Amino acid sequence: MIENAYIKLVPASVKTNITIEDVKELLAYYQMVTSKTGKQLDWDYDKKAFPYDMKEPDKMKDKMIYLQSNDDRYHMILIGVDQEIVQDEQGMERMQSYIQFTLPESATFGDKGKANELCKFLAKKLQGQLHLFNKRVMYYYPRK
């Protein structure tokens, strides 16, 4: 069964609009941080922390990327960006950007764990609202 998690960018987030290029930059930053951790530990940690190759599909290059792995414990994670119309507390409609993480049917438990880790990392960096695969919500932005 296909599962989805969302990082929604609310007005209190660092950014209110996101592109797939922004997501690629954040994932590159994640790889850099984990490689520095590996150097400090004298261990090849960056390959274990991010066992994927980042690829772009032929269609929808500006909206989607996928992470594919050759490791036997991982397979694939799809990442896309889009916008939706939401109503705020006052009933006003506004555009809200979000990042969607999708686990295809062929995804493994390793993919789900890694997708949760990446979702939390991105949500924390962007100060967004994270809707996890299990439908729970985590708030990484300052709330009133």
Describe this structure in words.
It is built from three helices and seven strands, in the order E-H-H-E-E-E-E-H-E-E. Helices cover 31% and strands 30% of the residues. A seven-stranded antiparallel β-sheet has the order 2-3-4-5-1-6-7, with helices on one face. The protein has a single domain (3-139), classed as TATA-Binding Protein. The chain has helices spanning 20-41, 45-49, 109-126, and strands at 3-8, 53-55, 64-68, 76-87, 93-103, 129-131, 137-139. The N and C termini lie far apart (37 Å). It is α+β, with helices and mostly antiparallel strands and 144 residues long. Helix 1 (20-41) crosses helix 3 (109-126). The model has no long low-confidence stretch (mean pLDDT 90).
Structural classification:
alpha+beta
| Helix share bin | 25-40%
CATH level-3 fold name: TATA-Binding Protein
Major sheet: arrangement of strands: 2-3-4-5-1-6-7
CATH class: Alpha Beta
